[in-house]
Amino acid sequence: MSDTSATIRLTTAQALVRHLAAQFIEFDGERVRLCAGGFAIFGHGNVTCLGEALYEHRDALPLWRGQNEQSMALAAIGYAKQKLRRRFMFATSSIGPGAANMVTAAGVAHSNRLPVLLMSGDTYVTRLPDPVLQQVEHFGDPTITVNDAFRPVTRYWDRISHPAQLIQSLPAAINTLMDPADCGPAFLSLPQDVQGYAYDFPAVFFEERIHRIRRQMPDAHEIAAAAEIVKSAKRPVIIAGGGVQYSGATAELTAFAEAHRIPVVETIAGRANFLAEHPLNCGAVGVTGTNSANAICEDADVILAVGTRLQDFTTGSWTAFDKAARFVAINVGRVDASKHLAQPVVGDAKLAIESLTVAMSGYKAPDDWASLAGERRAAWNTYVDGNISPVTKEGSNRPMSYAQVVGAVNRLCDAEDRVVSAAGGLPAEIAANWRTRSLASVDVEFGFSCMGYEIAGGWGARMGQAETAPNKDTIILVGDGSYLIMNSDIYSSVLSGHKLIIVVCDNGGFAVINKLQNNTGNVSYNNLFEDCNIATEPFPVDFAAHARAMGAESEAVGSIAELEEAFARAKAADKTYVIALQVDAYEGWTDEGHTWWECGTPEVSNSEAVRKAHADWEDGRKRQRAGV
What we know:
This protein is of the alpha/beta class.
């Protein structure tokens, strides 16, 4: 038995790091350190005390130097997602602007329910040196600092004003990171003087602890009610979200769908829950979805939503379903399970599906319903075949497009490679055109739709992938807009030896927002470089040369055939490889498969085109479910 009276005198920073290093997780019989290390940019707010402590534990908690505070936190998020939330990494910054840079990343983790521990330096609790370097002063409230900006975008927030507070706060932060229902970012504000204060910590605080992911059993009454609703269905459909993967429930969901002959559609976060060739896989649903998935959802009378927060891109702003359709929602989060008056099943997806399988014994959806779903998916596959082809049916060349790039990479990558993308036009093109060949192999960040996630998140994802599949690749699809926002982790990936394959699709600006601008009757303005307020003729960025300057191998290509040849060279390379190409800003978009999406349009305008678009948008609102 441990001596509970024994103490160890350490600084706040030393105790924090030592406690982190003592946490382990056991999953499927494997025991590994819970925190896989972290990312840091040091400044005066964290280098002297936290930096000293991290150096002493550099073997247990490897530290990676980021190039931007936001991107290193995004890398930690990409790692957590690749590890299916079973491990996490931390990111630490100095005070002021360095801390503020991580707020966007906190929003990504919060929206996507992903664990990351964020730690920033803060002003002094004594306030004797105030105002200090990089301090934002609030004259009416001296307790407010930049770090308070993390409150709306974190699941756990605390300012450590005394070393002893760590004994309660740090385990609470870790428990938040590991809790399936409350999972999200945790933030610790670390005043510069408190980081160095010493305290006699209980020795038991640093003993090794084994964590296990909690699996919450669903309530029997909720299972019974859900079973009655689904069994009454003549046209049921399953929406499979990202929570299916986090629960490790893909096999159970597949078996459930097969046993009851229920078609399955996927959210963007739930891409790669089902293999493409599975006969019940109807494709991606919603605004960035497929004709097959959206048609089957529109006709469904019961929707079983598993592990999804039912974001507006999934629901078509709640126009993708018949107004009379009934919802059953399985989710570890009470709020997510209860949206739109769904019959909630609050609990772990794996356990809930197993329980629902028993409760629905003997039920099968009508054969003609599954057959109709298969016919619609076959029709969509035929459409995709033409959509990703660089030539028309008549044999003439088509303008190079995102869809063609997605199709080429999909054909050429290994089945277990991981594809990473985010924001802009690529999420829709991947959702519609990517044919999943292995489970949990797609990471499209669209919960927060954060431009800049692609390369940074891919760097973190590669770290996780390298632990279990070092011979497979992390492939990043990124537009020129996101690349220009955040690209410095190309350098990080080369320095750290984490190879990435990056395909940069240059369409001359923010082409997908230009598309939305045009679709709502507006003229092109301030999205494509050619339509911006500029002092010279627009010119293409030499992305290949830029990537070479950061140590990567790179080349520019001018056709899909050249892309295929370059991709083979990228696969054979031993370090990060960047392939740049130009795609058309106007032609080649996947225009099929989209539901209506609520987008604010001007009720009054001098433009007839804008007024017509507003009328069309308002007409689409007639199909919207009013929260019931």
